[in-house]
Design goal:
Layout: E1 5-7, E2 10-11, H1 12-34, H2 39-72, H3 85-107, H4 112-142, E3 156-158, E4 163-165, H5 168-188, H6 194-209, H7 227-260, H8 267-272
Antiparallel strand pairs: 1-2, 3-4
Helix pairs in contact: 1-4, 2-3, 4-5, 4-6, 4-7, 5-6, 6-7
Length: 273
């Protein structure tokens, strides 16, 4: 739609990706302050998140290169390789939790990071679709991740394609913005299980959206499924597993908080908030 360079080699895609990261950090900071999260844990999570975003993008490109390899037999990593969000999500999540638990074990000897994790995931579940929604607008501007050719009123002309196509990027941006708003309200009310809810909702949405896509989707080892459809199924299955795990984690964290809670008004209590 608008893939041209604007300034300093940056396109609207690049700019909106930056805005997406800033938006995610702003949302997390808002809830961190609202819930009076320990400042050391807050800063630790922000650093962890930056690492996850940077390395997650690398994973997104790597996953795309692997899909390209399965389809063409050529493994190429370059500026034109492309990136897949679901690959970045999985890789970024692996980095985040690796740092959170391994480095966190040294930083938080009292296990504060483990106790607070369920609630933190409830907030991160708001940040991801909010940032992804903005990122999809970047895809719309770049002309990637597009749908099939159409003459319908909702079709959008893509400069790089020279034709009108189904704006799957816009549809997904709207869905993700609505999902983020829904989860934001849940987080305001301290509702639990936002992360498995996000995973299930996005998996259910993304699977049929692949049927409207017309860009190169790559191949999976299951011939009738695209890589994103396969990962969507894994997201839905993972949401069920995560729900079960979090149910026990919430109970453990609540019990731990009650057991370890110091006397009211003490300095130790204020530090652990």
């Amino acid at each position: 739609m608008f893939p041209k360079e604007i300034f300093f080699g940056l396109t609207m895609y690049d700019i909106l990706l930056g805005v997406a990261v800033v938006a995610a950090i702003a949302i997390f900071t808002y809830f961190s302050n609202r819930r009076k999260l320990n400042y050391r844990l807050h800063n630790f999570i922000l650093i962890d998140t930056v690492l996850a975003v940077i390395l997650g993008y690398g994973f997104a490109v790597l996953f795309q290169a692997l899909w390209n390899f399965l389809e063409t037999g050529a493994f190429v990593l370059s500026r034109n390789t492309g990136a897949t969000f679901l690959g970045g999500l999985i890789g970024g999540a692996a980095v985040f939790f690796g740092v959170y638990f391994i480095a966190g074990a040294f930083v938080f000897k009292d296990g504060l990071n483990r106790r607070k994790l369920p609630g933190i995931l409830d907030v991160i579940a708001v940040c991801i679709p909010a940032a992804h929604s903005i990122g999809r607008l970047g895809c719309l501007c770049a002309g990637c991740c597009h749908g099939k050719p159409t003459d319908a009123w909702y079709g959008i002309y893509m400069v790089n394609l020279g034709k009108r196509v189904v704006p799957t990027q816009l549809f997904e941006a709207i869905f993700l913005a609505a999902l983020a708003a829904f989860l934001f309200v849940r987080a305001l009310k301290n509702k639990k299980y936002n992360m498995p809810l996000y995973m299930a909702a996005y998996g259910v949405w993304r699977f049929p959206m692949e049927l409207l896509r017309d860009d190169d989707r790559g191949q999976s080892f299951i011939s009738f499924l695209t890589p994103s459809q396969l990962i969507s199924i894994l997201l839905i299955a993972g949401s069920v597993v995560l729900f079960i795990v979090l149910k026990r984690a919430y109970a453990w964290a609540d019990a731990k908080e009650k057991t370890d809670k110091p006397a009211s008004g003490s300095a130790a209590e204020k530090e652990s908030e």
